[in-house]
Amino acid sequence: MSSAPRPAVSVVAPCFNEQDALPEFLRRVCAVLDGIGGTSEVVLVDDGSRDRTWDVMAEAAARDPRIVAVRLMRNHGHQLALTAGLSVCRGERILIIDADLQDPPELLVDMMKMIDEGADVVYGQRRQRDGESLFKRATAAAFYRLIGRLTDVQIPPDAGDFRLITRRVLDLLLAMPERHRFIRGMVAWIGGRQVPLVYDRHARVAGESKYPLAKMVRFAADAITSFSVVPLMASMTIGWIMAGLGFAFFLYSIVGWINGHTLPGWTSLMAAVGLLGGMQFLMLGIIGAYLGRLYDQSKGRPLFMIRDIVGGQK
Ligand code: UDP
Ligand code: MG
């Protein structure tokens, strides 16, 4: 670790195949930092990109001493790439931002003011989302509603990871060893004074979303299993209901038998077996989802692996 004084602000951006967005991103971020004045750094994390992202960021780091380029061994996913950047950065205040300029870096000025006034976290809350499909907006809305109902942690709706946090909050965040990281939820869990800054989300400057449906589903599953055991508890509720129905069915058969009816058994039997079998698989799946995460956690592997770091005054 360096003993040099901390920069006042670190900007941390995970980048996956962002060669086309990066130059414009750096131009705008550096302009904002110049405007604010004081010491700063920009930490870019190449999350195993397959395009020229690393070359672009390494060249930028060679040119500008403020820029630090970090390359991971392979693609680790958005949340872990961000975690890598957060553990490398050294600033007193840390701006978390995507490299695609969907979130305007110019808001840093207002966010700094709000921290000056005593906030621990200033999170961007989206009023509008330009250039995103109806499907993306609808699934995002449904996801935030669902997670809001499943957990007691106050996770603000319509807020991404775009936020300015203090060093104190960052150190607490980095002290959490969990692998399946839902960072916006973890920051909310930390508490302190967290205030929203409402803004309009823009379309990407270049490239396309790196969140295909499969990644979105995994992200949602990580968020829910990290912050709620309601699905596990739901298995119990459903179990009780099924047991009640089973018992009613049992009574019905006995009464029928006493009254001398032969039951028209096949249909009801198959219905019961099918229903119960389906339910059991569902419950096992839910238990499996939690168990799998427990297993991953118990291996204690590093969260991310850095291959190179270029630039910065160390
Ligand atoms: N990203 C990453 N690794 C991944 C996927 C995405 O580092 O595996 C980065 C990406 O380069 C961007 C940020 O995470 O800076 C958010 O991704 P994206 O803009 O594709 O998500 P969206 O805004 O569509 O939800
Ligand atoms: Mg984006």
Offer a quick outline of the entry.
With 314 residues, this protein is α/β, with parallel strands linked by helices. Helix content is 50%, strand content 18%.
Textual characterization of the structure:
It is found in: Membrane. It is a multi-pass membrane protein. Residues 10-171 form the Glycosyltransferase 2-like domain. Its main location: membrane. This is Glycosyltransferase family 2 protein. The chain has 314 residues and is an alpha/beta fold. 50% of the residues lie in helices and 18% in strands. The chain contains 10 helices and 8 strands. It has helices at residues 22-36, 53-63, 78-88, 108-116, 134-150, 167-174, 183-190, 213-227, 230-258, 265-299; strands at 9-15, 40-46, 67-72, 93-96, 121-129, 159-166, 194-201, 306-311. The protein has an 8-stranded mixed β-sheet, sandwiched between helices. α6 crosses α7. The N and C termini lie close together (8 Å). The relative contact order is 0.15. The model has no long low-confidence stretch (mean pLDDT 91). Bound molecules: uridine-5'-diphosphate and magnesium ion. Residues 13-16, 18, 47, 75, 77-78, 81, 98-100, 102, 209-211 line the site of uridine-5'-diphosphate. Uridine-5'-diphosphate is lined by residues 13-16, 18, 47, 75, 77-78, 81, 98-100, 102, 209-211.
